[in-house]
Design brief:
Strand content: 35-45%
Number of domains: 1
Structural class: mainly beta
Shape: globular
Largest sheet: 5 strands, antiparallel
Number of strands: 5
Radius of gyration: 11 Å
Strand order of the largest sheet: 4-3-2-1-5
Length: 62
């Protein structure tokens, strides 16, 4: 899956704050993402993140 730093991810499941949109801060074996609702940062394995992505939005697309 082609995910880059700065992309906005729309996930299948909501964060506990109710938002399902995240910004990618770091990529590698693990992803660091920031919730756009509450601002909390999450670091999780690449496999788990990629499995839960519904849509990837880039600034080029907007």
């Amino acid at each position: 899956m082609d995910v880059r730093v700065g992309d906005e991810l729309i996930m299948k499941k909501n964060h506990p704050c109710g938002c399902n949109r995240f910004t990618v801060l770091r990529i590698g074996a693990d992803f660091r993402i920031r919730c756009l609702g509450c601002g909390r940062e999450i670091m999780q394995e690449r496999i788990k993140i990629e499995k839960n992505i519904k849509k990837v939005m880039r600034e080029e697309d907007a």
